[in-house]
Amino acid sequence: MQIFFRYNWQVRQQWFDWCEQLTHQALFEERVGGVGSIAKTLHHIIDVEWSWIRRLQGKSDQELPFSSIQSLADLRKLNCSYHKEVEYFVDRWQPSYENDVYKEGQPPYDTWGIVMRHLVAHEIHHIGQLSVWARALQLEPISANVIGRGLEA
Fold first, then answer.
1. How far apart are CA 58 and CA 91, in angstroms?
2. Are 27 and 39 within 8 A, CB to CB?
3. Which of 10, 15, 20, 75 is most buried, judged by most C-beta within 10 A?
4. Number of compact structural domains in the chain
5. CA 47, CA 33: separation in Å to the nearest integer?
């Protein structure tokens, strides 16, 4: 599972770099599908990952509202500040956590393992939307290939 988190983080960084070629308008423009804009989608990916990790740890997850994001630099800064805590948790994942029950919301409850896999799938889903928008802008999207990324090293 840690390999797929590293994959998502690597691809996310590549999308941040990819966004450097966009104008401010293109980054924040409302689009059909997804969360609404490239910037909102990146904010959503960052926030959801951090929020779920915080909740698994029994911590509050007061998000930074999207309205406070005014630039790609703001998104990068948010990612960097949230990522430290997420990476710390993921790097210390123990097999014994797999079957811990997450008891928030209504039954049936899921395990921590399922929540972690949801986080991986969630980001991959939204990265797919970014790829669709990249093609609509007639730009090459970031490769979704897992092979050749050096993730096992």
1. 18
2. yes
3. 75
4. 1
5. 19
User: Do 8 and 149 contact (CB within 8 A), yes or no?
Assistant: no
pLDDT in tens, 85-110: 999 999 999 999 999 999 887 778 89
User: Which domain, by its residues, includes 66?
Assistant: 2-136
Domain CATH number, residue 93: 1.20.120.450
CA 107 from centre of chain: 26
Determine contact, residues 24/71, Cβ cutoff 8 Å: yes
Phi, psi of 25 (to 5 degrees): -60, -45
Tell me if the pTM is above 0.70: yes
Q: Whole-angstrom Cα distance, residue 57 to residue 36?
A: 30
Chain position carrying tokens 């092979």: 147
Question: Which 8-state DSSP code applies to residue 97?
Answer: G
Among residues 81, 79, 77, 72, which one has the least CA distance to residue 18?
Answer: 72
